[in-house]
From TrEMBL:
PANTHER family: BET V I_MAJOR LATEX PROTEIN DOMAIN-CONTAINING PROTEIN, POLYKETIDE CYCLASE/DEHYDRASE AND LIPID TRANSPORT SUPERFAMILY PROTEIN. It comes from Brassica cretica. Residues 2-185 form the Bet v I/Major latex protein domain. Belongs to the MLP family. InterPro entries: Bet_v_I/MLP, MLP-like, START-like_dom_sf. Gene3D superfamilies: 3.30.530.20. Pfam families: Bet_v_1 (PF00407). SMART domains: Bet_v_1 (SM01037). It comes from the Eukaryota. This is Bet v I/Major latex protein domain-containing protein.
Length: 185
């Protein structure tokens, strides 16, 4: 049996849980304009944007954050980068800057618990994983703040495939980057 696991994290957000949930549930069509550096296109194949059981595909680019990271370094930091080149080379190897991928998912909607579950059907991540489910739960914290609890449930197709920890980092950055857009809407 191949390795499986669960990753869980929380992202603090400004604004109400209901407002964030609505954007993630019903308004995926705005993601390319809001966070185009991550999401280039969202296509609904079956159902409506906000319907339980709908099937959609996401065209996205991940790993781009390392390009931004390196752009902040000036020539005075070159020795720092040189000293830590093995670490940076490993990060680049794991994160493949600017990699364009596609993810097709079936959506489960739980309005009562402000939870969306995206069950992986096809796409690049599914080439290495047998199971890839991303669960977003928007949890009220105060009157004007909330958190998005992100849970990724995964199972490798075989033990030679790497664990999908970089996908958790990517999903976490999606949620954090959408925070600003949700609040200015």
């Amino acid at each position: 049996m191949a390795t499986s696991g669960t990753y869980v994290t929380e992202v603090p957000l400004k604004g109400t849980a209901e407002k964030h949930y609505k954007r993630w549930k019903s308004e995926n069509h705005v993601f390319p304009d809001a966070i185009g550096h991550h999401i280039q296109n969202v296509t609904v194949h079956e159902g409506e944007h906000d319907s339980h059981g709908s099937i959609r595909s996401w065209n996205y680019t991940w790993g781009i954050h390392l390009l931004y990271f390196f752009s902040f370094f000036s020539s005075q930091h070159i020795s720092f980068i040189y000293d830590y080149r093995n670490l940076f080379n490993e990060l680049i190897h794991v994160c493949e800057d600017g990699k364009e991928e596609m993810f097709k998912e079936k959506r489960e909607v739980d309005d009562e618990n402000l939870t969306l579950t995206l069950r992986g059907l096809e796409g690049h991540v599914m080439e290495q994983l047998k199971v890839y489910d991303v669960i977003y739960q928007f949890i009220p914290k105060t009157e004007d703040t909330c958190a998005c609890k992100i849970t990724i449930v995964w199972e490798k197709r075989n033990d030679d495939s790497p664990e999908p920890s970089t996908y958790m980092k990517f999903v976490k950055s999606l949620v954090a980057d959408m925070d600003h857009h949700v609040n200015k809407a």
